[in-house]
Amino acid sequence: MLRLFSVFLLAMFFALPAYAQEAEPAPDRSATGGAQTLEDIMRRQQGLEVDNSFRSSNTGNPTGGASPTDQLGTLGGASDPDLWRGLRFDSADITTQIQHPAATVLIQDTGMWWLQFREGPLTKYGFGLVLGTMALLVLFYLIRGRIRIDGEKTGRKILRFKSIERFAHWLLAGSFILLGLTGVISLLGRNFLIPALGPEGFSTIAIGAKWVHNNVSWAFMLAIVMIFVLWVVHNLPHRSDINWLLKGGGIFGGGHPPARKFNAGQKFIFWSVIILGGSISASGLSLLFPFELPMFAATFEKLNQFGIPQLLGLGELNTNLAPHTEMQYAQLWHAIVSFVLFAIVIAHIYIGSVGMEGAYDAMGSGEVEEQWAREHHSLWVEEVKSKEAKAGGSS
Ligand code: HEM
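Above: inputs. Below: predicted complex with protoporphyrin IX containing FE.
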């Protein structure tokens, strides 16, 4: 299930740029003897896709030629242009003294696409999503107002979350918010901080933000593991979830559909944090240890095996990715999934604080008003009471 969901998200992500660029028939290159034409150059200048296969495979016969490492070797079967194409399309046989996964890549070809996507759609839609969610919540608040405790308060309290659960939650929340703020500074702080603080001031903040981001990430990962272990049993699907969903959680005057410890809405939050937070952590680790943990070529191979890109009309995804291309995909994926999780978590913060009377106490003191619990988690209250009765009976 988890794998399928990730595969689906990835497939949607990689479908986007392909749809943004219309495919056109390959131009006739007979006039240039198979070399690139004016049309190719014009398409590239317009930012349109150019099928480079006519060049990437046109690398002469490198095995018949002298090795590029030989001193003053004759060119033999590989001419200069053949060799440069081999370097550009990462098929030349390079050896370096530096033993590093990325050291043999002398020309890397996908940098501009990455930079433009990062500064364009990623920033625009990422912030659009987060600000749009905030605007919707303000609208929701204006229409629905604060969800109040309907019945008479009892004055009795029920323990909802133990201190270890609250510790894990606040570790997750605190680290996530710090990571979000420092991540935004890394992504586009230069755009608004350099004009305000100058390059020197920004440099100090950027170095600090990167340090915080790299180190706080461990707290986030630990917190994810903790909440998974503590809450997974309460977040497995249950038949009461169907009724809860059909009644829309009773948000618009539909009463209070019964729920166990977590209702279907909260289960959605939980699994979003686990799956999206897990994916952010995986791509984050890939960024934290540059070139050491490439993940995308292997994922593309799996996607191709499932036949998903083919189903979307994208053909097989390229699984021969240069180390830098792996890093670029990791950066984009990390940022996109973080924006999505941020938007989900903003809705969660709203409902856990100003949106609902009595909810915050669950994570504040750990104890909630019994009437609140009866209204929002009636099946859980019954479970707690029957456990108490059993414990009382047996003592
Ligand atoms: C900083 C503001 C936040 C507030 C005020 C807040 C509040 C709460 C409250 C009151 C609950 C318990 C709800 C209940 O009793 O049923 C809760 C649960 C939870 N929180 Fe938060 N939270 C915050 C941030 C976060 C963040 C940043 C994350 C994840 C990145 C997160 C993840 C969760 C999860 C997974 C649960 C359990 C499922 C749920 O109740 O939705 N929280 N939070």
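The pocket of protoporphyrin IX containing FE is lined by residues 160, 169, 172-173, 176-177, 227, 262, 266, 269-270, 273, 345, 348-349, 352-353, 359-360, 362-363 (CB under 6 Å).
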